[in-house]
Write a structure and sequence with these properties.
This protein is an alpha+beta fold. It has 4 domains: 2-127; 140-274, Hepatocyte Growth Factor, CATH 3.50.4; 306-425, Phosphorylase Kinase, domain 1; 433-647, Orthogonal Bundle (Transferase(Phosphotransferase), domain 1), CATH 1.10.510.10. Helix 10 (447-467) packs antiparallel against helix 15 and helix 12 runs antiparallel to helix 14. The radius of gyration is 27 Å and the shape is globular.
């Protein structure tokens, strides 16, 4: 006797086990059970759209046999490029068995008892409190080897609220004891935690990799906070944001490797502290030695490092000179004013929480009013920020040279001592994501407004790629990095990860991939190759988000499909692309214009970069496309997206959001 649950990667369709509404009502109930659409590596039970229990992650074995009381269940995994399926088989002549999902959310294995003529329950899941999904919160785990089982924080983490944890409430989860140092520094390492189940929210680093390659890829990826290399097939799994639903189960578990500051990694007790050398560590050590020798040789020759770090001048409206700033840091030696730190402290009420309007891996953003009444946004780089000094300098020097109505405007800079701050124009409607993905607010984004945002972002990217003095690759375009002014006009922000191309340069290669999973082009996330077409891919994802109102990392509202991109392409192929339009603005939406935007979006997310349009073409289509012209009459048909599930060499990423925020990925939300 055999049963199976499958996920057809070619169409996105999945098999489900559904609960009844009640023991007496066979109508579909709230609980469902099937393969995880995002990975196809685990089975999940949902209560509506909320996961409530999951099977262990499939780590590469082909067949497993479970002996449950008198019953034997043989589980096999069958995979191809078209479909992956899990089959459940019992031997010939055995008592009939069946899996049942009850109306109360219990997944049961039943066996027919011929003596009593009734179904006996052999096993029931969730089997204990630790089995409940996410019981111990983000970066927490349930230790089932202890008696009684209890929630703990992963090494290097501590309860966000000790009082709530002591009372048995874990909603606030765990937080780092010490923030990670700046990305790329040698002040971080990895500590091992054996005997663990594989937590959720993982991403499969597809391809045949060795354990060393898996470790190196995570170490080189600023957003990779944890990795594991496990299973018979040696699967490399990485985590870029939070980990949830982990358990410590003993010898049968896997080993997780957590990215931690060196002091914590080195002193972690009960674990094998493993220091993983970053790709440039040797060069960094050599450079440090050279700098040390240079300092010892020249320290008596009159250079005062303490004084040279105090390089602010009063905000008099004059442009700083090299002599005013000193020779150590020329970050503020730019085309805008330097503002005193004391003035910023006063303007922000000493960085009052009531004036904080945003935060990310870089630090926090505050609303401030300067002398004269000008309202600004102050971005303060945290001392433990994911965005280091190089990213800060990159953002400041780059954006000072860029002027466009669809780029955020930098007004000033402050680099006093260890403080690093950027002062921007204040945009009252903040990030696009705060409105677009808020069910209570998104109705204000009617179709004309959304179309205006799409066109504005496209024009801003065209300026960066072609019309500015520099050819700039943003590398972290996403909804949270598109700010809206009082008139809902978009301005692209956050240039900390941007790169400048030289004349005639078409593409570049890097071992340090930055950006946000879901928005990152396939060739960039897997090979480190980026170009203007990488930004085009991110724009395509953003365009589909704006039309649909669905976040790229969300599975809500896309039925059984593994991602928004696959869902959009499926609707397009079936001639039902209109169903992608966000219902909250359906009445104001022009069908022809929305179909044109979806078409452009699908072309932008083509797997092959050469098939993606340049931003000049995208702008031309969006600006000149006639509502009376069917898009397919003059545009090429989009191809099936590059998502091939777990069987392919490339895997569609979900919002890695640094930017550590979201592979800085800005650092795999963000920054």
């Amino acid at each position: 006797m055999k049963a199976r649950l499958s996920h057809r990667t070619s169409t996105g369709k999945r098999d489900w086990i559904m609960s009844w509404r009640s023991p007496r009502d066979p109508a579909p109930g709230p609980f469902s059970y099937g393969l995880d659409p995002g990975t196809s590596l685990q089975l999940l039970m949902w209560n509506g759209t909320r996961p409530c229990w999951r099977n262990p992650v499939w780590m590469g074995h082909d067949v497993s046999t479970n002996y449950i009381n008198a019953g034997t269940v043989r589980t096999a995994v069958v995979g191809s490029e078209e479909e992956i399926a899990i089959t459940f088989t019992v031997p010939f002549g055995a008592a009939p068995m069946r899996y049942v999902l009850t109306s109360s959310g219990s997944f049961q294995l039943l066996s027919w008892n011929g003596t009593t003529s009734a179904w006996d329950t052999l096993e029931s899941w969730p089997s204990n409190g630790c089995s409940n999904y996410g019981r111990c919160g983000a970066f927490g785990y349930c230790n089932v080897t202890a008696a009684p089982a209890a929630c703990r924080c992963l090494d290097g983490f501590q309860p966000a609220s000790a009082a709530e944890w002591s009372s048995g409430r874990f909603e606030q989860a765990c937080r780092r004891k010490q923030a990670l140092p700046a990305c790329g520094s040698d002040g971080e390492g990895f500590v091992s935690m054996p005997s663990m189940t594989v937590p959720d929210k993982f991403m499969l680093d597809a391809g045949n990799r060795s354990a060393e390659e898996c470790a190196a890829r995570c170490a080189a990826n600023c957003s990779c906070v944890v990795y594991t290399y496990a299973g018979e097939l040696g699967r490399c799994l990485v985590w870029a944001e939070e980990l949830v639903d982990a358990q410590m189960i003993g010898a049968a578990g896997e080993t997780l490797y957590l990215r931690l500051p060196v002091p914590i990694a080195a002193t972690s007790t009960g674990r094998n502290a493993v220091k993983i050398a970053l790709p440039l560590l040797a060069a960094a050590l050599l450079l440090s030695c050279i700098c040390f020798l240079w300092f010892r040789r020249f320290r008596g020759k009159g250079t005062n490092f303490t004084e040279s770090q105090n390089k602010l001048v009063p905000g008099t409206g004059t442009t700083n000179t090299s002599s005013e700033i000193g020779e150590v840091d020329h970050t503020c030696d730019l085309e805008f004013h330097s503002i005193r730190f004391a003035d910023i402290v006063a303007a922000t009420g000493n960085f009052s929480k009531t004036l904080m309007i945003g935060r990310g891996g870089f630090g926090k953003v505050y609303k401030a009013k300067l002398d004269g009444g000008q309202v600004v946004a102050v971005k303060r780089l945290s001392k433990d920020s994911d965005q280091g000094a190089e990213e800060f300098k990159n953002e400041a020097t780059l954006i000072a040279k860029l002027q466009h109505r669809n780029l955020v405007r930098l007004l000033g800079c402050c680099t006093e001592g260890a403080e690093k701050l950027l002062i921007y124009e204040y945009l009252p409607n903040k990030g696009l994501d705060a409105i677009l993905f808020d069910s209570a607010r998104k109705a204000v984004l009617e179709w004309p407004t959304r179309l205006g945002i799409i066109k504005g972002v496209a024009r801003g990217l065209l300026y960066l790629h072609q019309d500015s003095r520099l050819t700039v690759i943003h590398r972290d375009l996403k909804a949270s990095n598109v700010l809206l002014d009082a008139e809902m006009r978009p301005k692209i922000a956050d240039f900390g990860m941007a790169k400048i191309f030289g004349d005639n340069q078409v593409k570049a290669n890097t071992k340090r991939v930055v950006g946000t999973y879901g928005y990152i082009a396939p060739e960039y996330s897997t090979e480190g190759v980026f170009s203007v077409k990488s930004d085009v891919y991110s724009f395509g994802v953003l365009l589909l988000e704006i039309v649909s109102g669905i976040r790229i990392s969300s599975t809500y509202g896309i039925m059984e499909f593994p991602s928004l991109i696959v869902y959009a392409w499926h609707l397009w192929r079936e001639g039902k692309a209109g169903k992608l339009v966000d219902p909250s603005m359906a009445e104001s939406c022009s069908e022809d214009e929305s179909l044109l935007c979806i078409h452009v979006g699908l072309l932008c997310v083509e797997d092959d970069p050469s098939r993606r349009p340049l931003m000049s073409s995208a702008v031309s289509i969006l600006e000149n496309g006639s509502a009376s012209v069917v898009p397919s009459a003059y545009l090429p048909a989009p191809n099936q997206p590059g998502y091939i599930g777990m069987m392919g060499e490339k895997i569609q990423r979900t919002d890695l959001e640094n930017s550590r925020n979201t592979i800085a990925m800005t650092v795999l939300q963000g920054r």
